[in-house]
Amino acid sequence: MAGEITDNRGRGEARxxxxxxxxxxxxxxxxxxxxxxxxxxxxxxxxxxPLGFLTLGVLAFFRDPQRVVPxxxxxxxxxxxxxxxxxQKVEPPRELVLDxxxxxxxxxxGPVTRVSIFMSVFDVHINRSPIGGTVSRVVYIPGKxxxxxxxxxxxxxxxxxxxxxxxxxxxxxxxxxAGLVARRIVPFVxxxxxxxxxxxVGLIRFGSRVDVYLPAGTEPRVLLGQKVIAGExxxxxxxxxxxxxxxxx
Length: 249
Fold this sequence. Notes:
The chain is an alpha+beta fold.
């Protein structure tokens, strides 16, 4: 299905398939599987069975399913699978605002809407670009490993900022944040790379969060408590400021 064009009028073809396992996770799955096999050969079934199930869990964590990315100049798609846990007006991170000496502008100063997506260990952890454009900035910052669901995790946890700029000058910044269990942010991109909307940009191991900073004048189309899907859920329409209410049921 990769690369196929589909639409809302029935064009294209859809079929279920097993998701692939990202190469970053295959080595961990093989290590746990090998240990499980050793215990099984030694007839230590008490340890072999749990390790066998752990192997399946590790492979599931690193699954990398295909996604159908909505195409539209105004769409900002979700960079992560997970739960919308925070929607707040904040100042964007200073690392995405300050002049970094490269000649590429950062985000404008001033309050913007931040949408925070919490990823549990059961979510897909491959992150994707919210818009198409050129990667103008990647900034890694070491830090703590507090619960990624906390507001202050945006400023105190280990994190990586990514800034993507479109050809028309629109810039979207987003931040991968490590959590209590997550201990490594793995980037797939570097400054100068050209991305399509929904293209894979990195992953965070074992539970974490991604913050998206929408441009001024743009409000999200998602609600607190909503589940979103990386590369598929439209977080916002650029320049649109809808007021949407939801009901939990």
